[in-house]
Structures are given as C-alpha cells and as structure tokens.
Amino acid sequence: MEKKKNLSKSDIYDEANITQEAIMEIPISVINDFPNHPYKVKDDDGMNELVESIKTRGLIQPILVRPIEEGKYEMVSGHRRKRAFEIAGIEKISARVQVLTRDEATLAMVDSNLQREEILPSEKAFAYKMRLDAMKRQAGRPSKNSVPLAQNFDGKTSRQLLGEEVGESQDQVRRYIRLTNLISPLLKLVDEKQIAMRPAVELSYLSENGQRWVFEAIEYTDATPSHAQTLRMRKFAEQGKLSKDVIDVIMDEEKPNQKEKSPFRDNRITNHIPHSIPKEKQCDYVIKALKYYNRYLQRIKDKGSR
Fold this sequence. Notes:
Distance between the termini: 91 Å
Strand content: 5-15%
C-alpha cells in the first residue's frame, strides 16, 4: 500500500514542486465537482452497494483531485466514490492530490471514466467533446477550428487520434459529439435507446425549435422517426422550408414502430385520459365524459330554476 505523505499546502503550490503529488486525507466539503462533468452520478442500487462496501471495507482506491486555490480542490476522478462518502456521512476522503492544468485534468477525468462497463451515449458525447477540445488546445490550436486545421498528430486528425485511443472510428467519434447539439428531451430518448444513433445525428442539425417540434410529434405519434425521415427533415431545414406542419406530415407516415395514435393532439385533453384507456377508445371515453358533464350541468340548471 502506498504510504501517505503529509505535505503542507505550500508544498502543493510551490512552483518548484509542480510535478509533485501526494496521498492526503481531505474534507469532502473543500472538494468541488469537475465543471460540466459529463458522467451521471446516480443514487441507484449500484450506489447503495458502493456505500455499503465503503462502510465495511473502506476506500480501496483514492480519488484524484487537483488544487485550485488555497485550501480548495477540484475533483478529477472519483465523483461516485465522493458521493458514496457523502451518503455514508463520512467527512474526509483519501485523495491523490496532483497539480494538473485544466486540460490535463480533463484528459485524466475522461480517460478514468471511460473504463466503466456501462456508459450512456450522452456521457460519451460530452466526454469525447471535452477530450477533443483539450487535445486541440494542447496541440496549439483553438477548439473552434475545423478538422483540416486541427492536425498536429503525425498527420492524423485529432478525431482520428481520439478514436484510436477510445476504440472508435473517427466517424463514430464525430457522431457522438454531434449528439451534444440535441435538446435534452431528445438526448434522453437516445440514452433510453428509443432513438438510434444515425437518426439522432440528423436531428442534431435541426434548430432548437425544429427539435422541439420533432419531440412534440414523437409524443403525439408515440413513435420515433426513422433515419430516412430525419434525412428529409434535415434537407427541408437546409432549404429553409422546415416547419411544424412539415414535421407533423413526415411523422404521421406509417412506420414499423408506429403505435396506435391518440386522436387528440392537445395535451390538455390527453393528460386527463387514464393510461389504461386504449388509444382507439379515447374518443368514446371523452364523449361519455362530456355527456356525463352535460347531464351534471343540466341538473345544476334545473335546481337553480326551482
């Protein structure tokens, strides 16, 4: 087991010791989360198991943090472990303190989390984007540059190099990063495997309004768009002809994954129809409800005239 070093705060901040690192016990209250951390930390069964493991066996692997100011640290790797300590009510955690630049910390944060068994598409999307931006900055090029200008890696594009490091093709890396342009409701459907990668990528080229229209149509039709449909939507958008009506027409087409549609588009109606009522019987349900309500109004009227 690695011996813990009792470094003073001045040791960590001393320019002469810029590469120095140490294992320290740090109060959780002085550790900030990594800005825009792309990986989700859930209080689920897995977290409960981690909490119990920490209570019985302690922390097996220290978290990784970097000093950001006097007495303050920023989390690099170990957000789930830190959360488990918070749930367990333990105030201090063993941490590897290492002086890192923001880009070095970003690369370390992404790499450590990519080892997880299960990673959501949205997590990969934002992680790949953060890592790619950091790689470009380290190569001396601003992240806003296009791919042809972002080459300083032995003739390879930054995307190609990232793909080799994470085991993906550069085209797949590009697709994942495109997902960061999706609105949250659509990205959630991608995470839930209701929208496949290629249709999701095409939707990412639509404006925010266009994407919201698509999401509303998905709710109404109870089906997600096919790749061919999203290609048409993107083409209409590029021609400046995409509208809510165009999206509704495209989404109203019959598809293999189409379910029976509700006859009502207005959520003010559908929200009051029990989920147990089949969509093909929703009209009958609403008509009966209206008849009952009209009889109720007539009784009130009759009482008032007596």
